[in-house]
Amino acid sequence: MNFNYLNKVVLITGGGLGIGRAASLLFAEHGAKVVIADLNEKNAQETVGLIKEKGGEACYFIADIAEKEQVEALFKAVLEKCGRIDVLVNNAGIYYQGNAVETPVDVWDKIMAVNLKGAYLCSREVIPVMEKQGGGVIINVSSEAGLVGIKGQVAYNVSKAGLIGLTRSMAVDHAPIIRVNCLCPGTSATPLVEASIRKEKDPAGAKMNLEQVRPMKRLGTPEEQAMAILFLASEEIAYATGAILSVDGGYTAQ
């Protein structure tokens, strides 16, 4: 399928690495002007460089999406530079292991601020822009952890479940002008996941466990998740809003 994003401006939070980088490269490959919002300037620069090497158009801005003032400044800057925003991908997120007793309150607050509040703040800024334009798409990147209770990561689970609720609420509030869909990736071979595996006492065993708990017996790839984002944002499925798509190797189907 040949997706056409020519002349579309796509803003991707956390676009410098992992699924965000893969999505940035893929949107650019299909003609989009990609804007990356990230806290890590090195990662953002590298991703922009990769896009430009292939003849694509991209730029980046440094912003902490958990901070209201920084989000407001981000969207102001993007609009000044690009004039419009056609697709927002709320991808940025952080992770913490721990149950309800083990998770410090400040860590809980930080997880919610980045993973959930950040998506809300970015959406809050872009919705009036898209309404004025006459259309737009928001894609929230949740997780298989938003659909089921995965042991030992309560704050992350709750933040990702919240993104699913945010998706459905915004979808019904802002249709038919704006479509809002949600991707729930399964564990994929991103730098974040690979770093987590390396920290385990038995990295090879830890990776095998992650693979064996899912029917497809392997981890996903950032590129597979990026293709799902591209699809959810496309005009090819313009009737889809409030959709929750699991790309998890069958994990949540069990």
Characterization of this structure:
The protein is an alpha/beta fold. The protein has one domain: 3-Layer(aba) Sandwich (Rossmann fold). It is built from eight helices and seven strands; from the N terminus they run βαβαβαβαβαβαααβ. A seven-stranded parallel sheet has the order 3-2-1-4-5-6-7, sandwiched between helices. Helix 4 links the parallel strand 4 and strand 5. Helix 1 packs across helix 8. The radius of gyration is 17 Å and the shape is globular.
Kindly give the count of domains: 1
Helix content: 40-55%
- Described by the principal axes of the CA atoms, the overall outline is globular
Strand content: 15-25%
Q: Please state the second-level CATH architecture.
A: 3-Layer(aba) Sandwich
- SS-based structural class? alpha/beta
| CATH topology description | Rossmann fold
- How many DSSP helices? 8
Largest sheet: 7 strands, parallel
Cα Rg: 17 Å
Mean pLDDT: 97
- Distance, first to last CA: 30 Å
Beta strands, count = 7
What letter string, H or E per element, gives the SSE order? Answer: EHEHEHEHEHEHHHE
- According to CATH, the homologous superfamily is NAD(P)-binding Rossmann-like Domain
Strand order of the largest sheet: 3-2-1-4-5-6-7
Low-confidence stretches: none
In the CATH scheme, the class would be Alpha Beta
